[in-house]
Specification:
It is a single chain. The protein is α+β, with helices and mostly antiparallel strands. It has two domains: about 150 residues, Jelly Rolls, CATH 2.60.120; about 90 residues, no CATH class. It is about 30% helix and about 30% strand. It has six helices and eleven strands. The strands form three sheets. It has a five-stranded antiparallel sheet with strand order 1-3-8-5-6. Helix 4 packs antiparallel against helix 5. The chain is rod-shaped.
Length: about 270
């Protein structure tokens, strides 16, 4: 939304000697632009030359007694007989009652691209015509206190903002990934996982050793059914040391059925306490 500089005044319909038309775009001017005290037409016009051809996205207008305003646009390269195109249709700055009573003369209106006519808002212009009117009170001088014109929002700024947002999202994702890695590599978590793996591996080693040491087992058939009763009791005791979250709050007992087979029986602690 860069300001569009007004280069000079091309023409105007009327002005008061003390309140000239340049006042509306001079930043250091403390006076408004008013029509001549002898002008009772109720219409005030000015054609302005912009510093360069630009798209117009915003127009800020400071009122000084005008009831209605209209903004037209054109190009300096056009022939004089080519009419300007309407950018801002006639808009109200004061009501008829306010105009007759002379109240609320110094309001401010801020117009944006959505307020402009579609056939002109997307084009480039270097001429602006402002038309003020006061049909309800032709005995009091009227005009404008200031006029500010700005370009639309810069697309490059929007693109830069989007890229910045993407970078921030990637950075956030990397931070989350790093936090997860730090958590997984923490000593407490590693101790839990490594402990479970070591217990499992230890049980498998115990089973293999028992199969190889038991003289009653068949070397070609690595099955627990061929272990002796003593070997099966040792293996069952080793397996009972593995942590089992689903069986928390239980006690394990090694039992033997009527056929002499060894099995592991779990009983809830609450039942034992009774």
């Amino acid at each position: 939304m860069a300001p569009i500089k007004i280069k000079h005044v091309v023409s105007f319909s009327s002005q008061d000697p003390k309140y000239c038309v340049e006042n509306i775009f001079c930043s250091d001017a403390m006076r408004p632009w008013l029509c001549s005290s002898k002008d009772h037409s109720g219409i005030l016009k000015v054609d302005l030359q912009l510093e360069k051809v630009s798209a117009i996205g915003y127009i800020d207008i400071g009122n000084c007694g005008s009831a209605l305003i209209q903004v037209d646009v054109g190009r300096s390269s056009w022939p004089h007989d080519v009419p300007y195109e309407a950018l801002l249709a006639t808009a109200s700055l004061m009501s008829p009652v306010e105009s007759r009573q002379g109240i609320n003369r110094t309001g401010v209106r801020m117009f944006k691209s959505g307020d402009f006519l579609s056939q002109a808002r997307n084009e480039l212009w270097d001429r602006v015509r402002v038309t003020c009117s006061q049909p309800f009170n032709k005995h009091t001088p009227f005009g404008l206190s200031f006029l500010r014109i700005r370009t639309p929002e810069d697309e490059s700024e929007h693109s830069e903002s989007t890229e910045t947002q993407i970078v921030q999202e990637k950075s956030k994702s990397n931070d989350i990934r790093k936090q997860a890695q730090d958590w997984l590599s923490s000593p407490t978590v590693q101790k839990i996982f490594n402990g479970q793996m070591q217990m499992k591996c230890s049980t498998e080693v115990t089973q293999t050793n028992l199969l190889s040491m038991d003289s009653t087992s068949n070397c070609c058939m690595k099955d627990l059914a061929f272990l002796s009763r003593t070997a099966r009791m040792v293996l069952s005791a080793r397996q009972s040391q593995l942590p089992d979250r689903r069986m928390s709050g239980t006690e394990s007992f090694h039992c033997e059925d009527s056929n002499g087979k060894l099995y592991l029986k779990r009983v809830k602690r609450s039942a034992l306490e009774i």
